[in-house]
Amino acid sequence: MSDVKEITSVEGWEEHVSSLPPSTLLIVSFHAPWAAPCAQMATVLSTLASEYPVTEPPATSWVKINAEDLSDISEAYNVTAVPFLVLIRNGEVLETVSGSSAVRVRNAIESHASKTGAGAAAANGPVTTAGGDEGEVATEEDPEKKKQELFRRLGDLVKAAPVMLFMKGTPSEPKCGFSRQLVGVLRDNAVKYGFFNILADDEVRQGLKEFADWPTFPQLWVDGELVGGLDIVKEELDSNADFLKPYSVKANGDVSAAAS
Fold first, then answer.
1. Are residues 68 and 164 in the same domain?
2. How confident is the model at residue 101 (pLDDT cuts 50, 70, 90)?
3. What is the pTM of this model?
4. Residue 239 domain flag
5. DSSP state of 191
6. Which of 52, 59, 91, 113 has the fewest CB atoms in 10 Å of its CB?
7. Burial (CB count within 10 angstroms: exposed 0-12, middle 13-18, buried 19+), residue 94
8. What is the pLDDT of residues 199-227, one digit of tens each?
9. Is the same domain home to 102 and 199?
10. 138 inside domain
């Protein structure tokens, strides 16, 4: 499966671009380490990339660039805010997406990329459907298969970090009181955690309820296992004050990392 490669120099960028055939969709994610939404987008892109197999020649190429470190490249693509996604094929910018909307990012990538050989054929010529009508591409997807793909994606997301918080909003801008309180609990315990804004992706929001068999948010996951919501986390800490200690960064003197 595909993964996201870090580009760290202008030379590395030029070498990577020149190595791609004209048919490859180049997916470029501009980020900054201080921007919390970029951590969420990194999780989204890593999960999406894993859904695309490695082919020869490559159908897709996934890279990420520190927008501040490589400002010349950022300026070339008019990157004024992060996260910022640029989709390129054969040197031409096909689409850009600014912000951390997972739905917009997924839709943009899927509209220009193909996961299967059939999809690639569709880009090069007519496809005959089961009904025998040339030029038509079947768009209906088996609901059970779609659910399985979603659950695989959710399985990756809940393991994206040792401690994962699925919340309404972001740690810097929670959109509900319970999410705000749980962020406070994690910060009070200096826990380094990943987060996902479920308001930015309704597919994740609805699917996680069934996947976790837990109907409300926020949800805290530890080592890929659901702990629960705010009340459950508080109960765990009341019964065991060291419940979150293995995930604390205090021992390393890096308390600021808890807000990442």
1. no
2. confident
3. 0.52
4. yes
5. B
6. 91
7. middle
8. 888 888 999 999 999 999 999 999 999 99
9. no
10. no
Contact 40, 5 (CB under 8 A): no
Query: Which structure tokens are listed for 173?
Result: 């801008």
Q: Which residue segment(s) compose the domain that 70 sits in?
A: 4-124
Least confident of 100-109, 121-130, 154-163, 242-251: 121-130
Cα(90)–Cα(84) distance, integer angstroms: 20
Please report how the helices 143-157 and 202-212 are oriented relative to each other, as an axis angle in degrees rounded to 10: 90
| 180 & 106 share domain | no
d(CA 235, CA 253): 27
Which residue in the block uniquely carries the two structure tokens 């604390």? 248
141 pLDDT more than 80: no
Q: How confident is the model at residue 114 (pLDDT cuts 50, 70, 90)?
A: low
Q: Residue 188: give its domain's CATH number.
A: 3.40.30.10
Q: List, in order, residues 6 or more apart from 78 with CB less than 8 Å away.
A: 96
- C-alpha–C-alpha distance, residues 176 and 190, integer Å: 21
Give pLDDT, residue 161: 85
